[in-house]
Amino acid sequence: MQNGPAVRRRKLGAELRTLRTGAGLTSGEAARLVGWHQSKVSRIETGASGVKPADLRLLLDAYQVRDGHLREVLLMLAGAEDAGGRHRWWHAYRGVLPPTYRDFISLESQASAMRTLETTVVPGLLQTAEYARAVTRAAVKDLDEERLDTLVEVRLARQDVLRSDPPLVLSAVLDEAVLRREVGGPGVMARQLERLMEAARLPQVRLQVLPFGAGAHVGLTGPFVIFSFPSTSDLDVVVLDQLTSSLYLERKEDLMAYTEAFNTLQFHALSPEDSLDYIAGIGDGA
């Protein structure tokens, strides 16, 4: 388990090592092609140091990487803007957001797909402003109104990934407890359920409810997120959100275990169509 920046450096380095060997180059040959010392290539490939976007472009050109999607993902992992010129907007909130949260947002903005199990609250990408305010106030102690406003602003800004081109593909399994817990009171919760039903009708969102009647399930150990990236599964990562930090799992065994767990949860959950009806029933007081 690593923190977010270390995961991205390691994954970027591992992918560059694969690309280099695929190009039939040793690390020394690669270094000579771009005018570096071999140790710099080695540090990048092991994740010991990061790589600037400009230097990364040199390596990708040397390895004759023509895949535009792959180049974009790797460049974003190195800190570049995306192909659409979207700025890394969360950098403006450095003084407010902890590093682990900033890094989560970074991964979220770069991913092509996100699978999430939620057992306590509505996923951040689907929250209304007033629901987000109530959740944030409860989760973070001693918040003044200005900082609370900023954190809610960030939460809503994150939702732009669902409207980008192409949008993030979101698959969410919600335990019924998420829908029953009256965060912010009955009125706030009623409007949040309406927002969920609106989002569930979007083509890029697959929303399923895991009803209490499903009994014990693999998700009882807690919520998790799986980020997937375009062009390569080697960059996929699992995020476990904790009270004061986030844990990032990158081993293939972990990715396989959580992917299988999510598939099992989807199998036992209601279908997207039945989930819509279920949410509507809860909203009507069922």
TrEMBL record:
PROSITE patterns: HTH_CROC1. Residues 16-70 form the HTH cro/C1-type domain. It comes from the Bacteria. Gene3D superfamilies: lambda repressor-like DNA-binding domains. SUPFAM superfamilies: lambda repressor-like DNA-binding domains. This is Helix-turn-helix transcriptional regulator. The lineage of its organism: Bacteria, Bacillati, Actinomycetota, Actinomycetes, Kitasatosporales.
